[in-house]
Amino acid sequence: MGKDLYIVMKPILLTVEGPIGIGKTSLSREISKAFGLRLLEEIVYENPFLGKFYENIAEWSFQLEMFFLCNRYKQLQDIRSQYLQQGVSVVSDYNIFKNTIFAKRTLDGENLPKYLKIYDILTEGLPQANLVVYLTASIDTVMKRIKMRDRDVERNMDVGYMKNLIADYDEFMKAFEQRHPDTPVIKFHCDDLDFVHRPEDLAYVLGQIGPQIRALQES
Fold first, then answer.
1. Where does the record place the Deoxynucleoside kinase domain (predicted)?
2. 149 is in an annotated binding site
C-alpha cells in the first residue's frame, strides 16, 4: 500500500522594494492575497519627523532615519518569532536594507558613520529576504504617482531628491545582486506597468512572482 506524500512548505520572507510612490504596498497586498502570505506593512506616516524632513532634509534626517530603523527592527523581530519560526511565510512592503540607501543620501559626514554602526548592531541576526521584488521607474512616473495619491507629507517632495533616490536604488540593487547571488531578485520597470489600475498588469506581475515563491517554499 503506497504512502501519501506530503510536501512541507518552507517559510520564506519576500520583500518588495523600490523608491517612494512606486507601488510597494499595493503590490505586497496583492501578493499576500494571491499566495497566502502574511502581510507586513512598514510604519511610515506615523513617523513624527516625516513632514519636517520633506521641508528640511538636512535638519531632520537623523531623527527620521533612527525612528524608521528602530521600528523596522522591532517589526522584523516580531515577524521572526510570530510567523517565520511558526512556519508562516511573509511578504513585506520593505526590506530593511533600504535604511542604508536613504541614510547615505540624507545624513551628513558626522552622523552617517554613527548611524551605520547602529544599523549593523541592530540588524545582525534579523531574518533576511529569501526573495526580493524590485520596482523601479523614471522620475516622471514616480512623481506622477506621488501626485496621484496626494498625501499631505509628500506635497513638498523635492524632485531632485527623488531623482537621486531612484539612482541610489538602482546602484544599490546592482551591488546587492553581486553580493547575494543566492537571493533571487525579480525586477519590474513600472513606466509601462500599472498593477494598481490594470488587472492584466497585475496578472502579469503575479505570474512572474508565483513560480519563484513556490520554488523557494518547496526547496
1. 14-206
2. yes
